[in-house]
Structure formats: structure tokens, C-alpha cells
Amino acid sequence: MQTPRRRTETLTAAQPLAPPLWSLNDVIPKSCTVFAVQADGGEVRTVEGLEQGGELHPIQQAFTEKHGLQCGFCTPGMMMTGAALLERNPDPDEAEVRRAISGNLCRCTGYVNIVESVRHAAEAMRGS
Q1: How far is CA 124 from CA 25, 35, 65, 127, in A?
Q2: Could you tell me if residue 4 is left (phi over 0), alpha (psi between -120 and 50 degrees) or otherwise beta?
Q3: Prediction pTM value
Q4: Cα separation of 128 and 126, whole Å?
């Protein structure tokens, strides 16, 4: 049994895919619709790969501080989507955050804490 992939790595078709919520070449695909062979040679990044040098990524820290974790089922996808959004737009408004996460369902409470978490991460990344 292979060790689960936790960092950004280049995969070959012979290797298993990372956990189901990930990015492929900096695009957030629906992992259930991507075959391993489609990731061959691509860069796969999981939520665990966001931290650098033992420090949480601002999105991970914000989800902790703003209670965006909730039950945890949707959290990896929300974090990866939030991180991708913040790479493209360092200052998204609430509507932009909601639009970005609209493909990831949360059944716990709603999206208030998740949206607050992404916006808090944006502030932290800008140094505000």
C-alpha cells in the first residue's frame, strides 16, 4: 500500500490519484470526473499541500479561526476553491466568494462562516 500523497507532486498514470479534493495544474476539477490517466504528468495539489514549512496556509488558518470547518466533509473542497479564488483575486467580495464555492455543497449550516473564512484569509494574505 502506498503512502497517501500530501504535497504537490507530479503523477504518472501508474500512480493512484490523491484524495478526492485537489487541483490539477492549478484548476479545481470535479475529481469524480477525472481519470488517473488524465492527471498523468500533471501537478496535483491537495489541501494538505497548502501548508508550507510547517505553517498553515492563510486559508487553513482562517477556516480554523472563523469556524468554517463545521463537520469537515466539504472543508477540503471549500479550502482548495477558496485558495484558488484568492490566487486569482486577492480581494473578492461576498458575491464572488459565494459564486466560487457554489459547486461545493455544505449541508451543515449554510455558508456564512465559510464565506467569512475566505474573506478573512484574503485580508491576511493582503496584510490588512
Answers
A1: 25, 35, 12, 5
A2: beta
A3: 0.75
A4: 5
Q: Which domains does the chain have, with CATH numbers?
A: 9-50 (no CATH), 58-126 (1.10.150.120)
Which amino acid does the sequence have at 70? Q
Q: What is the pLDDT along the chain (128 residues), one digit of tens a residue?
A: 444 444 444 444 444 433 334 666 666 666 777 788 888 888 878 899 999 899 999 999 999 999 999 888 899 989 999 999 999 999 999 999 999 998 888 988 789 999 999 999 999 999 97
